[in-house]
Each structure stands twice: as structure tokens, then as C-alpha cells.
């Protein structure tokens, strides 16, 4: 093997194999780089962080019940004609007679249904109110007229069952002026359902009463 001419590298001794020492160093450095690159390739890649979980779909909150309000019609209105109008139940006479008059003509129940007429006692003539919403086993909303002997129509009035057995035999009724359930407890006969067994008269348009 021919060795390079020493004159080409003045002042720099050749190695035993005729390769410059600097070249040896370069080759060694190059080899080390290759090893490091290989080690880097073998190193485990850190796992990517899991993406955030999508938000849990929650059911929309139930709408709040409508607020109680009242309407003063053009002419003062009694509870019986208003209940007859709203429910289509063709019963006449004092409200206190509705429960007995409904026997054999309309279904009667001890639990509320929307559209049913609640028959109350506790006053000389009694009182009737139409159930418009059921909030719970012991709370309903009713529309009724002349509750405070004012001839007005009261909408969305809360009524609460306060009977010991939860059978709607005793209730408290919303007092609009004070904005709370009245303190007085009224006996209740039950609910007359609008699905009649015999024929009934059709109710006139509500506008005739609303004025």
C-alpha cells in the first residue's frame, strides 16, 4: 500500500497506516453521531396527552310553572259558569252540588287530571276550579273565578293537597293578594273528569266571558 507523500502535509506526522490523525478523529466523531442518532430512534416517544373529554350532555331544566295572575272581566264572573265553560262539563247549580250531580254522568276521581274540575267545600255555596297543570303528587295549578268574591278570573293558581293520607281530601289554595298559599284548609270532594258518560252542552267561546 502506498503512503501519501509527506510533503503534502508539512509538519504533520502520518499515522502508522498513513492516515492523518485528524481524519481519525473525524471518523470517530462521525461514528459517535451515528450511534447517538440510533439511540434517539430507539427511545420511546412520549405518549400524547389524551384530548379533553367532551362535555356531558345534561337534560335541559324544566321550565318554571307560569306565575299566578288575574283578569277582571267586563262583568263579574262566578266560579260555576267559568268552570262549565273551561271544562265542558254541563252541570248547573251551586258548586257544592257538582260532586253529587256528576254521579252517573261523569267520571269522578280522587286524584287530579288536567281538565278535571276540583270540587271544594268549606263555603256556603262551595267552589269549583279547573285543573290546568300537575306539578307533583300534591301540587297542581288551577284556573277559577270569583275565588275572593271579586268576580275575577284567576289563572295558574297553585293548590296543594295537605291531607294526611295524600288523597286530596283537604287543600290549601293560592291567595293572590299575599302571594302565597292561604292559611285556611278547605275540604275537597274530589275531581270531576270531563269525559262524560251522557251528552253535554258545548261551552261558548271564552271571549264571551273575558270581555
How would you portray this structure in words?
Strands 3-4-5-6-7-9 form a six-stranded antiparallel β-barrel. The protein has 211 residues and is α+β, with helices and mostly antiparallel strands. A hairpin with a 4-residue loop joins strand 7 (170-175) and strand 8. The chain folds into two domains: 14-41; 72-210, endopeptidase fold (from Nostoc punctiforme) (Alpha-Beta Complex). The chain has helices at residues 21-42, 79-87, 98-102, 207-210, and strands at 69-71, 106-109, 117-120, 127-134, 139-145, 153-161, 170-175, 180-181, 186-196. It is built from four helices and nine strands; from the N terminus they run αβααββββββββα. The model is unreliable at 14-20 and 198-211 (pLDDT under 50).
Q: What's the CATH H-level superfamily name of the largest domain?
A: endopeptidase domain like (from Nostoc punctiforme)
The total domain count is: 2
Shape: elongated
Name of the level-1 CATH class of the largest domain: Alpha Beta
Q: Give the amount of beta strand, in percent.
A: 25-35%
Distance between the termini: 125 Å
- CATH fold topology of the largest domain: endopeptidase fold (from Nostoc punctiforme)
Q: Which CATH-level-2 architecture of the largest domain? A: Alpha-Beta Complex
Mean pLDDT: 80
Helix and strand succession?
A: HEHHEEEEEEEEH
Q: Give the % helix.
A: 10-25%
Low-confidence stretches: 14-20, 198-211
Instruction: Please state how the strands of the largest beta sheet are arranged side by side.
Output: 3-4-5-6-7-9
Major sheet attributes: 6 strands, antiparallel, barrel
Count of DSSP H/I helices: 4
Radius of gyration of CA atoms, rounded to a whole number: 45 Å
Structural class: alpha+beta
How many strands in all?
9
Amino acid at each position: 500500500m502506498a503512503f501519501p507523500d509527506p510533503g503534502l502535509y508539512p509538519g504533520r506526522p502520518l499515522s502508522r497506516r498513513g492516515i492523518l490523525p485528524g481524519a481519525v478523529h473525524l471518523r470517530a466523531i462521525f461514528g459517535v453521531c451515528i450511534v447517538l442518532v440510533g439511540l434517539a430512534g430507539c427511545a420511546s416517544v412520549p405518549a400524547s396527552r389524551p384530548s379533553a373529554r367532551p362535555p356531558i350532555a345534561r337534560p335541559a331544566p324544566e321550565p318554571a310553572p307560569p306565575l299566578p295572575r288575574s283578569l277582571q272581566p267586563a262583568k263579574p264572573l262566578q266560579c260555576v259558569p267559568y268552570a262549565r265553560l273551561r271544562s265542558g262539563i254541563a252541570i248547573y247549580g251551586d258548586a257544592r252540588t257538582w260532586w253529587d250531580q256528576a254521579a252517573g254522568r261523569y267520571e269522578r276521581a280522587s286524584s287530579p287530571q288536567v281538565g278535571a274540575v276540583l270540587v271544594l267545600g268549606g263555603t256556603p255555596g262551595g267552589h269549583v276550579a279547573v285543573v290546568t297543570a300537575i306539578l307533583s303528587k300534591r301540587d297542581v295549578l288551577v284556573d277559577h273565578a270569583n275565588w275572593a268574591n271579586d268576580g275575577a278570573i284567576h289563572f295558574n293558581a297553585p293548590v296543594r293537597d295537605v291531607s294526611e293520607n295524600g288523597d286530596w281530601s283537604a287543600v290549601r289554595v293560592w291567595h293572590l293578594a299575599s302571594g302565597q298559599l292561604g292559611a285556611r284548609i278547605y275540604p275537597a270532594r274530589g275531581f270531576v273528569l270531563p269525559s262524560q258518560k251522557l251528552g253535554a252542552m258545548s261551552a261558548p267561546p271564552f271571549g264571551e266571558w273575558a270581555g
